[in-house]
Amino acid sequence: MLLEAKNVSFRYAKKDEFILEHFNLEVRAGERVALVGPSGCGKTTLAKILAGYLRPSSGEVLVNGRALPSRGFCPVQMIHQHPELSVNPRHKMAKILAEGWTPDADTLRALGIESAWLSRWPNELSGGELQRFCIARALAPQTKFLICDEISAMLDVITQAQIWELLLNIAAKRNLGLLVVTHNMALAERVCERMVRCDDGA
Amino acid sequence: MFKENRLLHANMPNTRVRIVLYISAAAIYLVGVFIWGAVLPASSYAVNYADKFIPPGAQFLFGTDFMGRDMFFRCVKGLSNSLVIGLAASLISSVIGLLLGVSSAVIGGKFDKFVLMCVDCCMGLPHLVLLILISFTLGRGATGVLFAVALTHWPELTRLVRAEVLQLRNTQYVQVAYRMGKTRLNVAREHILPHVLPVYIVGLVLLFPHAIMHESAVTFLGFGLPAETPAIGVILSEAMRHIATGKWWLALFPGLMLIAAVLLFDVIGENLKKLLNPESGQE
Q1: Domains and CATH numbers, chain B
Q2: N or C: which end of chain B has fewer CB within 10 A?
Q3: In this structure, are residues B184 and B254 in contact, taking their beta carbons and an 8 Å threshold?
């Protein structure tokens, strides 16, 4: 399994400046890659392009040499920076989880999700608790690559450590490719094997 | 500041209780008139030339008209008829609005432009002219009025629903649902409809008064219900002929009943809006 970005450029409209220009990236199955760079350099934009939320203005995103599917379950799943925006406030947690797949009890236990939380509304859970649900939802069996966009930036250090440990365990077990987007160098060095910089025009 | 507020409201029931009271009072009046009118025997407002032009009093609460018909029962029957037409018309209208609003936002592109053009066309023409035209082409009568009112009241709701859906379509959780392989139909059912439903219900209730007013207006102008059907519009247009000779009760009471019904629907709608809006729902 190989996720590639080939010569990816992106801008919102024809007259705008390029946010990304001729960007190349490869992530293999089981590999943990950090994407680091200053604020506003296009990290999240790149993450959205890789997960199929945005189409690149030029260049292509390939999974195993094939273009990302535009419908159906996407093998590249993205976990967002703000979990409270990624869940429908009118759905209960069990329904939100079921949107991805029906996780087994082991996965839920591994992620520290208590069964009582399943019958709650999103506004009754904290950011860290919601983020665990978002991670669990993205871990469906069809998922081959996970893009983690600052998934722990708003959590306190203890929760950060917990979530990363859980996520790294699961990723190793399933041989998932991880792309960790962050501006926290310490985290990137601790979690990842390889680092890609996203400076201006990199 | 909080303390003052609490003192001010200490002896008053909270908004929720007051709203429920308003709504049930309004509902009792409207449902009462509707049922009473539906079961009223035709003999109670039959022609009786012996009792022509009797002013309001103990025997005839609202007086009688130029054919000696009891105006009170005629008003009840008339308002009941108007309510039925208003209800049917606003139901049809709101369903058109909901479907067009959701589909134009979800499909987008040329279809969206076409729907917006229709909305602008409908809103740009004077309402009454359009109503008369449609009612006249469909041969007047109950069907004519019904379709005329139903086909002219969807644009506002379409716009509202479309705006809601457009905003919702770009939220992160809807985007996530698409990446998890959900189809458009599934997203519409699971995410979009439940969100739009409160807007729809409030819109529906606020459509009633419009529909009733326009039904009466078209009938008043002679393009709606036939003269033998008791309807508020018919009653009012007959009353116009006698108002110059001092028969004031023929216009006053039916007019008041119509205004009361319209205002009550408005009260229900405005209060539902407050209840269903999460910003003010907890007050």
Answers
A1: 65-265 (1.10.3720.10)
A2: N
A3: no
Interface residue of A78, A99, A144 to substitute, partner B, most B CBs within 10 Å: A99
Report the C-alpha dihedral over residues A158, A163, A165, A171, rounded to 10 degrees. Answer: -170
Chain A contacts of B199, Cβ < 8 Å?
none
pLDDT higher than threshold 80 for residue B11? no
| Tally of domains within chain A | 1
Task: Name the band, by pLDDT with cuts 50, 70 and 90, for residue A202.
Answer: very low
Of the given ranges (A98-102, B61-65, B97-101), which has the lowest mean pLDDT?
Answer: B61-65
For B173, name the nearest residue in chain A, comparing CA atoms only: A86
Residue A180 domain boundaries: 2-197
**Residue A60, in any domain of the structure:** yes
A99, B175: Cβ pair inside 8 Å? no
* Angle at the Cα of B191 from the Cα atoms of B96 and A83, rounded to 5 degrees: 150
**Closest Cα in chain A, distance from residue B169 (Å):** 12
Is the CB of A140 less than 8 angstroms away from the CB of B180? yes
**Could you give the ipTM of this predicted complex?**
0.88
Query: In the structure encoding, which two tokens stand for residue A64, read together?
Result: 């195993």
Residues of B with CB under 8 A from a CB of A: 171-173, 175-177, 179-183, 190-191, 194-195
Domain-embedded: residue A87: yes
Closest chain A residue to B193, measured at CA? A90
What's the whole-model pTM score?
0.73
pLDDT tens, position by position, B152-179: 889 988 999 999 999 998 899 999 999 9
Rounded to the nearest angstrom, the minimum Cα separation between B282 and chain A is 15
> Which tokens is A152 given?
């722990």
Contact A76, A25 (CB under 8 A): no
